[in-house]
Amino acid sequence: MAKVIIGSWQDKFTDNRNISQDKIEDSYSEVDKLLKENRLKAFIGWDGFFIFDREAPVVDMFRAYVQKVQDESCGYCTPCRIGTQVVADRLGAIAAGFGSQRDLDEIRKMAVVIRDASMCELGHTSMNALLKVMEVMPEVFEQAIRERRPLARGVYHAMATAPCVNACPAHLDVPRYIDAIRSGNYFESLSIIVRKNPLAGICGRVCVKPCESVCRRAELDSAVSIKSLKRFSSDQVYSNAVTKITQIVPLPLTSDKKVAVIGAGPAGVTAAFFLRRNGYSVRVFEALNEPGGMSAVGIPDYRLPRDIVNTEVRRIAAEGVDFSYGVRIGRDITLKELRSEYDAVLIAIGAHGSKDVGMAGEDLKPVGLVSGVEFLRDMNTLQPQGKFNPPPGRHVVVVGGGNVAMDCARSAVRLGYPRVSVVYRRTEKEMPADHEEIRDAKLEGIEFHFLTHPLRLEMEDGKVTGMTCIKMALGEPDASGRRRPVEVAGSEFMLACDVVIPAIGQATDFSFSSDDFPIKSTKWGTVAIDNDTLMSSQEGIFSSGDCVTGPKALIDAMGNGIHAAHVIDLYLRGEKMRLPESELLYRMIKAMDLPASLVDRVGDEIRCDLDQRSVAERIGDFNEIEQGYNPEEAIREAQRCLRCYRVAMFVTEE
Fold it and tell me: What is the pTM of this model?
């Protein structure tokens, strides 16, 4: 078990060297669980270190750590570029048995210079652990110098990361692509993005931006507009103002194995993209007549224009991924037949079903009651053909507090309904929708009824006439961490309306499964899988995305798609299926839950937000609201990035 023998993080120092092993408290059991049989011996990070094994190769592991820092140095400033090389060389000499006391003195002096004079966080943080270990364990370095013999090497797993990179489900190298924008190299920026994210234009518009929620720039003034910079790179490269998309040559096939992907949503398309790049023949089967899944039919054009989705997927198709549209598995071809034809199958069908609110009368399906998923799908697929007939009425009430609810309400405004309301059972603070979506909905005249829950649909002649609701109060936190809403006795009231759109959740459609070839489900109605291998109950059939996790953000589905491509690749090569080492390291860092560092900078640069069309102009159509950056704005915003890179290294037994 991971018991700290000696360690330091920020200002907290732990020294258990004189305490017997059985009396030391276990500190990082979650990391042990992730490593399984591979024992953790030490960890070195940006604000300190922990040693869990009395025999850990202290000197050599710090040599390896500083060498990783040197490898990651961008070269913009001398202290980091040259200083880390000097420190790495001196530690290397000591580890090789050729060190001297002078080397130790030079290491200490240079480490202070690197820490205090570097231009970015890589340099600022990279020497903290080394300086501390040389302070509290000088004897191990002095012993290595006295004995003058090569030291045993350890087993090291190192990575350069940043808070924004950790937070991104796809672990996109955010500082690096922003740095390329700052240098005016938009092609390089997009190429960095596409290494992990083949849907940059889509993510640059509708990502929920978990990266920005942890951006350390926010401690100074406001977070860097990471999402908008991603959109800028994609728009610049794929706009005629910069270049024409040249003919893409399909990638060569390097394997005779074939993979079928069910679903052309973010998870399926991402997995297909990376599997094709690994040399496999890949065909995507999509029940809709277009790509994108819920990103295409579940998000209105004013947030995500359909031509952006189509452009991104056409580029992926040009690389050699085949797409078959209008094909529903279970109707046009069975899953069993598909498995017999392909070496592996990935189920990535999303969550296109809807969940009931549970109010009385909902099961009667009166005119005027339509689920949020159905409302958006019909609007997005039928409206361009002039075939969409919105439910008749004057007052629309949307039930729910997520982005789907906001999309329904804001779309209803654009469809011409005179009055649109949102009913949500918690307060605005607990709403899962993006803050910007709630803000813009209010600006567009949408009413909000917080702490309100529907009890019963009111009907007349089979048509909705209203909804009886009850006021709620917040009680103790529930499993989600949010305070549980409880009914306030005697607070019922009638909300007159003629259209009700429940948008409280989505469900997975299992019509692809059959009695003779069943796929097991969970108690939540999602596809049951092994969490590490993503294998379903049928051998060779994998699953990822919303049909596994339940409805989550687009970037979460893409992260799932990356994982799926990795394990399917291992499966087809006959290797043991496991997490990519990089993903394991990210999970280990998260499991350690280390205190965050404070930013020691001065900040007074205002964030450059995207311009929006005026409310009066935009509520009359579905044209895109946000206008992208121009190059001057993008470069100015990119310059706000602090480049918060830091290096983490785990030392293990194997």
Answer: 0.92
